[in-house]
Amino acid sequence: MFGTGTLINTIAVIAGSGIGIFLHKGIKKELQASLMCACGVATIFIGISGTLQGMLQFQNGMIETKGSMLLIFSLVLGSLFGEIINVFCTCHFGI
């Protein structure tokens, strides 16, 4: 059975898509850019909080780290792959 979060997410995506299609011409380019930046910043914060939650653990009254090398390895591989497929140019100028 689907969870409540899945159902709410599905309804939100459908509603947001409908609103986006309806208001596509009515939203100024500046507002679109601001909304995209806000969503990007929110995504970064969600990612950082999830990463830190998985990496930092409190044991015996001390903070211990876990998975630091995996984080570094993932960032290096992601950077290399992004350069290979030229992700910055694609994101900035479109496909």
Give the structure's gist in a few sentences:
The protein has four helices and two strands, in the order ααββαα.
The count of β-strands is 2
**CA-based gyration radius:** 19 Å
Low-confidence runs of at least 5 consecutive residues: none
β-strand amount: 5-15%
Strand line-up in the sheet with most strands: 1-2
Order of helices and strands: HHEEHH
Q: Give the averaged pLDDT, no decimals.
A: 85
Number of helices: 4
**Class derived from helix and strand content:** mainly alpha
Helix content: over 70%
Pfam families: DUF554
Keywords: Membrane, Transmembrane, Transmembrane helix
Transmembrane segments: 6-23, 35-56, 68-89
Organism: Robinsoniella peoriensis
Task: Report on this structure.
This is DUF554 domain-containing protein. Keywords: Membrane, Transmembrane, Transmembrane helix. The protein has 95 residues and is mainly α. The protein has four helices and two strands. The protein has helices at 4-22, 29-55, 68-84, 87-93; strands at 56-59, 62-65. The chain has a two-stranded antiparallel sheet. Strand 1 and strand 2 form a beta hairpin. The protein starts with a helix and ends with a helix. The model has no long low-confidence stretch (mean pLDDT 85).
Q: Layout of SSEs?
A:
Layout: H1 4-22, H2 29-55, E1 56-59, E2 62-65, H3 68-84, H4 87-93
Antiparallel strand pairs: 1-2
What attributes does this structure have?
single chain, 4 helices, extended, mainly alpha
